[in-house]
Amino acid sequence: MLDWTDRHCRFFHRQLSANALLYTEMVTTGALLHGDRDSHLRQHPDSGPVALQLGGSDPAALARCAAMAGDYGYSEVNLNVGCPSDRVQNGSFGACLMKQPQLVAECVAAMVAATPLEVTVKHRIGVDDCDSYPQLQQFVATVASAGCQHFIVHARKAWLQGLSPKQNREVPPLDYSVVEQLKTDFPTLSFTLNGGIENLTAASEALQTLDGAMIGREAYANPYLLAAADRDIFGSATAVPSRGQVVAAMADYISAELAAGTRLHHITRHMLGLYRELPGARQFRRHLSENCYRDDATIEVLWRALEFVPGEM
């Protein structure tokens, strides 16, 4: 979700669910240690439970970045060992690290020593020709011995050469049974299923045998599916928020951010799918998309877009 789940996106999704654990986009250790740390890590005080997802392969650097997470109010630190993009491979981290379980273990051990927060690992079920179940078992056992107790598993293997990142999300077949077998073989560890989960019904089914379910791009494209999560997944008695209630909360946030110098499109680009499949949704998206980038764009652009979805406020 690189360049997608930034702080504005997470604040928007938080208006839909108070309980869902949200993830940051993957932030590299170099960006935090040598760049503008605050721009990457700052978040709204009401952000709720959020995991900081890190990319890197140097234990000392990851430890320093993990230590920052608590200062910025994060509830978990996640090491990404599943991203197959060329940019990530060139940095010697992401999915290619699955071929080096001992190095991943050293990274995890350093992170665990640096922060009281839970340290988790997100990975694939295999990479390239390292895709046998015994190899996956060894990877999990090695990393768990370093202090990781929770694994988020994208139930596809990754091909580092020959497939684009998009193809790596679609071409290798999903195999949920592999993740279920991990849970059987490592009953004291926690496993969250990732990959192909597109609604709360599928998430509920995954939770029958596993400890968590991660919804990725579908939650971005169709964010309102999260609105019933507190009721249907977490058992909350709180009423499901309407789209109008979500927009009202975002309006206050947008006004404050605009006053602080944030450009409108940095926020509203995450809201394009809020009215998906409803009458007027296409016009809503078009108006926002065409007008939020103007230098003089104000919240009036959002109010005008809402005129295309009458009755939904």
Short note summarizing the structure:
Belongs to the Dus family. DusA subfamily. The protein is an alpha/beta fold.
Descriptive key words:
313 residues; alpha/beta; TIM Barrel; Four Helix Bundle (Hemerythrin (Met), subunit A); 2 domains; eight-stranded parallel sheet; 16 helices
Describe the structure.
This protein is of the alpha/beta class. It folds into 2 domains: 7-232, Aldolase class I (TIM Barrel), CATH 3.20.20.70; 243-306, Four Helix Bundle (Hemerythrin (Met), subunit A) (Up-down Bundle). It is built from 16 helices and 8 strands. Helix 10 (200-206) links the parallel strand 7 and strand 8 (212-214). Helix 4 runs parallel beside helix 6 (101-114), helix 6 packs parallel to helix 7 (133-144) and helix 15 (281-291) runs antiparallel to helix 16 (300-306).
Could you give the topology of this structure?
Layout: H1 7-14, E1 22-23, E2 27-28, H2 29-34, H3 37-41, E3 50-55, H4 59-71, E4 76-81, H5 86-90, H6 101-114, E5 118-127, H7 133-144, E6 150-158, H8 165-168, H9 176-185, E7 190-194, H10 200-206, E8 212-214, H11 217-221, H12 229-232, H13 243-259, H14 265-268, H15 281-291, H16 300-306
Parallel strand pairs: 1-3, 2-3, 3-4, 4-5, 5-6, 6-7, 7-8
Helix pairs in contact: 4-6, 6-7, 15-16
